[in-house]
Each structure stands twice: as structure tokens, then as C-alpha cells.
Design a protein that fits this description.
Layout lengths: L4 E8 L2 E8 L2 E5 L1 E4 L11 H6 L5 E4 H6 L3 H6 L3 H5 L5 E4 L2 H6 L2 E5 L4 E4 L6 E4 L1 H11 L3 E3 L11 H21 L7 E6 L5 H14 L3 E4 L8 H11 L9 E3 L5 H8 L5 E4 L1 H7 L2 E4 L2 E4 L19 H5 L2 H9 L4 H26 L3 H13 L7
Parallel strand pairs: 4-14, 5-6, 6-10, 10-11, 11-12, 12-13, 13-14
Antiparallel strand pairs: 1-2, 2-3, 7-8, 8-9, 15-16
């Protein structure tokens, strides 16, 4: 019996809606989780994040273990109190950041030793310590420690890496202490190789987790290959548990993955794009640095009800980004997160109505129409 209650509410082909009940409230699925790497969603207050419609955010074990430290966060009441976020929190295990950020990392059967990207201090992260850190942080959903395999790795290297991650998953499961409303997710690895993904999924299902993530994607393989991996992996995962596609992605990626049975997503794209002058709209992506916006009195997106679109023109946003005013990234980030939540809500509505295929086709057609001067 899982410590996290998950109910599937409706299905439309492979797409589905559901509700994941956590200790800090429900997550309506399909769901997009804004990334709050260092206990903050960049350029946003927690109240603003909530106002976009987001129910759950992601926080990062690697960054928080380095600064300010999980023991301090626990002493101050846990991550929810520390960052003033009342809703669910998913904490990732730090494996990806060790792979992408850490200096001089050395991996062995027991875990990984690495030097902090902040000050060069030596740290060791094992499956048991990853579980302990996440318990100290107090998130609702914890992730197993895994190794992120580089895209260029050979099939044999991917297989060895995946099997190491599966052994680590078993140790995480053993170290994890169940609590009502909290859960531990396993992570399927295996690169772009379908038989390795199947082996990984079968191993995790035998161990038994509260949910199952698909990791090791969105690392340069391209959308077609990514969706192919998702399509081949989902059938190996239990129908009655949530499925989480890690680190994905662009709006079209979300629609494609929901159509293939994914329930949960996270990605830095909407916040990072907001800080680099990009806005997602129903007509595609806008670059607010483009001179064509300089005299435009209209909103980013006529159909959007976010505060940015309701109160500020493209001309003003263009001025803010050209003047490098901090309000520019704040307003663009707010809009982008609102757009992502609107997209998820529209997909849930379409699935509930049995019209997801029609929605996906209309979305693709809408995104194909580019505004003049935009990429």
C-alpha cells in the first residue's frame, strides 16, 4: 500500500487525469512543477507562484545540501516553513547536478565523491545520505539517487550505469522511512535503448515505489527520440502509480508526453526563458529584445489572464529588458509560469472531455503559426 494516494480520474487513449494526494495537499495531474532549485523559484515570490495555478514545486538536494545545509533547514522547521511554501514539494536527489555541476567527481559502487562548484569543498553523496537529506528537507516526494548517463555513452556504458542506479534505488528504498502523505519515486534509466529501459522499469517495479520517473532525457537527444523512449517505457510502468518525466520541457514536449501517459513534469525552461527575455504564447515564443515590440501597445498573449498580460504592454516589456531592469525578468517569468499552468489545465480539461487528440492537433497548428520577426 502506497503512502501517497493516487487516483486516476479519467482517460483518453493513453492520456489521463488524476489526483496525487500529499501531506501538503493534492496535485492535479497532468501537472507541471516550477523549479525552485535553491528553495526559491527565481524572480517569483511563493504567493506569485501559487497565483499562476502551480500546486507543487521542485527543490534541489544538491544545491540545498551545499547551502545552507539540510540540518539547518530541518532546525528551522523544514523546507515548507523555510521558504514559506504551503503546497507540496518534490525534492530531487542531486544526481543530475553532481553530473552536470560538480568538479572532480569520482563515482564508485558506494556513491559519488565530488567537489562543490561553490567553494571546492569535498562532499560524498550515497543513496542513504540522499534519502536522509531529503527527509531533513521535509519534502512530500523524494527521489532515489541515480547516475545520469551522458548521451554519448555506449550501450554497454549505459547498461552498466543503469544497473548501478538500480542497485542504488534498492538501497534508497531500504533507507527510506514511510510517512503518510509522503513518498519515494524510482527513476527509470537506460538511455535511448528500449530493452535497457524495460529492464530498469521491471527492476524498480519489483522493488515497489510510490511513483516512477523517467530520467536521463532532455540531455540533447531531441524531441523525437525523447518521445519514442517515453512511448516504449510507459507500458512497463504500473497504471495505478504516477509517472514523472524529469527535466522536460518545451510546451510541445509536454503535450506529446501527456499523450503518451505522463502525469508529472518539471523544467527550468519557463523561468530561465523569462530571465533571458523570452515569452511563451499561444502563437509561439516571443523574443522581447526584438525591435518590432518597441511600439507595440498589445499584451504578450491576448488570451492570457496573467498580471503581465493584463497590465503591461509588449512595448513596456521591451523597454524593461533593453534597460536591464529587474522587473522585466519578473514579469516575463510570471507570464511563462502562468502559460505553462494554463496549458496543463487545458490538457486536463481536454482529457476529461475525451477530446485530447483534437486539442493536441489544434495546439500543434497554433504553434506552427509564427509571428513576424520571431524565431
Amino acid at each position: 500500500m502506497s503512502a501517497l494516494a493516487f487516483e486516476i480520474l479519467s482517460t483518453d487513449g493513453t492520456a489521463r487525469t488524476g489526483s496525487l494526494m500529499t501531506a501538503h495537499g493534492p496535485i492535479d495531474t497532468p501537472a507541471f512543477m516550477p523549479v525552485g532549485t535553491a528553495a526559491t523559484v527565481k524572480a517569483m515570490t511563493p504567493e506569485a507562484v501559487q497565483a499562476t495555478g502551480a500546486q507543487c514545486i521542485l527543490a534541489n538536494t544538491y544545491h540545498l545540501m551545499l547551502r545552507p545545509g539540510p540540518e539547518l533547514i530541518a532546525e528551522l522547521g523544514g523546507l515548507h516553513a523555510f521558504m514559506n511554501w504551503p503546497g507540496p514539494i518534490l525534492t530531487d536527489s542531486g544526481g543530475f547536478q553532481v553530473w552536470s555541476l560538480a568538479k572532480l567527481r569520482e563515482l564508485d559502487e558506494d556513491g559519488v565523491e565530488f567537489r562543490s562548484h561553490l567553494d571546492g569543498a569535498l562532499h560524498r553523496l550515497t543513496p542513504e545520505r540522499a534519502v536522509e537529506i531529503q527527509a531533513l528537507l521535509g519534502g512530500d516526494v523524494a527521489m532515489v539517487l541515480d547516475e545520469c548517463t551522458p548521451l554519448a555513452a555506449s550501450e554497454d556504458e549505459v547498461a552498466q550505469s543503469m544497473r548501478l542506479s538500480m542497485r542504488w534505488a534498492g538501497r534508497c528504498k531500504q533507507a527510506y522511512r514511510e510517512r503518510d502523505g509522503h513518498g519515494l519515486f524510482g527513476i527509470v534509466q537506460g538511455g535511448v535503448y528500449a530493452h535497457l529501459r524495460a529492464e530498469s522499469a521491471e527492476t524498480l517495479v519489483r522493488l515497489g515505489f510510490d511513483g516512477y520517473a523517467i530520467g536521463g532525457l532532455s540531455v540533447g537527444e531531441g524531441q523525437k527520440a525523447m518521445l519514442k523512449v517515453v512511448e516504449r517505457t510507459v507500458p512497463w510502468l504500473p497504471e495505478d502509480r504516477p509517472r514523472y518525466l524529469m527535466g522536460v520541457g518545451k510546451p510541445a514536449d509536454l503535450v506529446g508526453a501527456v499523450g503518451r501517459g505522463i502525469d508529472m513534469f518539471d523544467c527550468v525552461l519557463p523561468t530561465r526563458s523569462g530571465r533571458t527575455d523570452q515569452a511563451f504564447t499561444r502563437a509561439g515564443t516571443l523574443n522581447l529584445r526584438n525591435a518590432r515590440h518597441r511600439k507595440d501597445p498589445g499584451p504578450l498573449d491576448d488570451a492570457c489572464a496573467c498580471p503581465t498580460c493584463k497590465g503591461y504592454s509588449r512595448a513596456y516589456l521591451h523597454h524593461l529588458v533593453m534597460a536591464k531592469e529587474m522587473l522585466g525578468p519578473m514579469l516575463l517569468t510570471w507570464h511563462n509560469l502562468h502559460y505553462y499552468q494554463d496549458l496543463m489545465a487545458a490538457m486536463r480539461q481536454a482529457i476529461n472531455a475525451g477530446a485530447f487528440e483534437t486539442f493536441a492537433a489544434a495546439f500543434a497548428a497554433e504553434q506552427a503559426v509564427k509571428e513576424p520577426g520571431e524565431n
